[in-house]
Design a protein that fits this description.
The chain has 7 helices and 5 strands, in the order E-H-H-E-H-H-E-H-H-E-H-E. The chain is an alpha/beta fold.
Length: 124
Amino acid sequence: MIYLDTHVVVWLYAGQTHHISGKATELINRHEIFISPIVRLELQYLLEIQRITVKANDIILNLSDLIGLRICDKHFNTIVSGAFHLSWTRDPFDRIIVANAALNDNILVTKDQHILENYEKAFW
């Protein structure tokens, strides 16, 4: 089981796989793929600020059909409690995405250098 950061979801949906590293592609191809529910909210936020043009639910439904992407159903309060300890970032989306992956010591696929430097199970 692996988790995807928001930018990876956007690139997969857009077919921009050239942005994704070979290692990340290998991980995506070999594991069950999940996202934190907060990724869905961040996608909506990106739509609202016009950084993307497709609705969050449309992206997730498409990737669910295409690659089996699933939204994690772990208890949100437990995830938020884990995020309390991630004081290395002020970004609430990143805190929850990492806390969600870290809850069961799962891999997080991300290009975010700050996450890569601070979460040992983050890979690019």
